[in-house]
Amino acid sequence: MKTRSSIALAVIAGFGLGAFSIHTLHAQAKPPVYTITEINISNNDAYMKEYAPKAQALIKEKGGKQLAASNGIAIEGQAPAKRIAINQWESLEMAKGYFSSKEFKENRKIGGKYAKFRTIAVEGRP
């Protein structure tokens, strides 16, 4: 009888400890960060040929994931910029790392000849 009680108590304690550990791990998980870039393009052919492929490759190289990139369509409010790009990052630090990298700045000089950019970052939901 005493052995059964000890086993039952150990199982309950183990379950409680496991549940607490899982809760703690979930609480520490950071939500993804999304960057949304509005792009007003003045020369679409040059932009698509000289800038976009390098930018897309660099996003991937720096740990980002491109989720969308196309012409935006207004559903409510003012019309968006000619092009919208949405990228996902594991953290705000990763996104900032991309935007402050030497490679980004060099490529943005090329893109700046053909477009004007506005980028914001938003935290995702866990």
The CATH topology of the largest domain is what?
Alpha-Beta Plaits
User: Helix segment count?
Assistant: 4
Question: Are there runs of 5+ residues with pLDDT below 50, and where?
Answer: none
| H-E string | HEHEEHHE
Number of domains: 2
CATH architecture of the largest domain: 2-Layer Sandwich
Number of strands: 4
Largest sheet: 4 strands, antiparallel
Percent range for β-strand residues = 15-25%
The percent range for helix content is 40-55%
Give the overall average pLDDT: 87
Account of the 3D structure:
The chain is α+β, with helices and mostly antiparallel strands and 126 residues long. It folds into two domains: 1-29; 33-123, 2-Layer Sandwich (Alpha-Beta Plaits). 52% of the residues lie in helices and 25% in strands. It has four helices and four strands; from the N terminus they run αβαββααβ. The chain has a four-stranded antiparallel β-sheet. Helix 2 (44-61) packs antiparallel against helix 4. The chain is elongated, with a radius of gyration of 23 Å.
Tell me the layout of helices and strands.
Elements: H1 2-28, E1 33-41, H2 44-61, E2 65-70, E3 83-89, H3 92-99, H4 102-114, E4 115-123
Antiparallel strand pairs: 1-3, 1-4, 2-3
Helix pairs in contact: 2-4
